[in-house]
Amino acid sequence: MFYSLGFPTQESLVTKTKALREMDFGEKDGLHFDGLTDTEKAEFSSPDYHAPGGESWQQVRLRVEDYFG
User: Fold this and answer.
1) N or C: which end of the chain has fewer CB within 10 A?
2) DSSP per residue, the chain
3) How far is the C-alpha of 60 from the C-alpha of 54, rounded, in Å?
4) How many CA atoms are closer than 13 Å to the CA of 64, on its beta-carbon side?
5) 6-30 per-position pLDDT tens digit
6) CA distances from 21 to 32, 38, 69 (A)
7) Is 53 left (phi over 0), alpha (psi -120 to 50) or beta?
8) What percent of the chain has pLDDT over 70?
């Protein structure tokens, strides 16, 4: 479960949701951006990027848009 926390002293205002998690990088999960080649960095920065075994930027955007409705 992931948390979005605006007022940590007021438990009733804490929203728990997986919708706002970071991108699922699939096979690339755990790699550091600085360790990627220039070509890989360019691919990752493209709006058409889709992580192997993970999400695309489009899927991330739609997930967040669905949450905020």
Assistant:
1) C
2) --EE-S-TT-GGG-EE-STTPPP--GGGTT--GGGS-HHHHHHHHSTT-B-TTS-BHHHHHHHHHHHH-
3) 10
4) 12
5) 666 666 667 778 898 899 999 999 9
6) 18, 26, 16
7) left
8) 81
